[in-house]
Amino acid sequence: MHELSIALGIVKISEDETAKAKAKKVTKIELEIGELSGVELESLNFVWESAIKDSVLEFAEKEINIIKGKGKCIDCDTEFDMKFIYDTCPKCNSNFKGILQGKELRVKALEVI
């Protein structure tokens, strides 16, 4: 379950940024997670409480923004929505594509006090 290491990484980023701001705790954290990132939201939510215990995030409100997957076919230049990394082009059925968005995994914002 790599979601635990992801959650612990988010805690580390939050603690580092809170220290830089000379703040004590985070009141809100905003995350961006792409549909194609490989992160299972149910698993992340399951491990979240354990990961944030006794950290600056312990009482923070968590907001997750899901970034839709989008690809561009290399063969016919069609842009299309993607749910899975292995989706093919709906126009020409090619497997060759570039991922335009959906692989994001970032801490977008922290509100600290």
Q: Any idea of the CATH topology?
A: hypothetical protein PF0899 fold
Helix content: 25-40%
Fraction in beta strands: 25-35%
CATH class equals Alpha Beta
Largest sheet: 3 strands, mixed
Tell me the structural class. alpha+beta
CATH architecture: 2-Layer Sandwich
Oligomeric assembly: single chain
Number of strands: 6
Mean pLDDT: 96
* Shape verdict: elongated
Distance between the termini: 32 Å
Strand ordering within the main sheet: 2-1-6
What is the total domain count? 1
Unreliable segments (pLDDT under 50, ≥5 consecutive)? Answer: none
N-to-C SSE string, H for helix and E for strand: HEHEEEEE
Number of helices: 2
Cα-atom Rg, whole angstroms? 17 Å
Plain-language structure description:
This protein is α+β, with helices and mostly antiparallel strands. The protein has a single domain, classed as hypothetical protein PF0899 fold, CATH 3.30.2320. Helix content is 27%, strand content 34%. The protein is built from 2 helices and 6 strands; from the N terminus they run αβαβββββ. α1 (3-20) packs across α2.
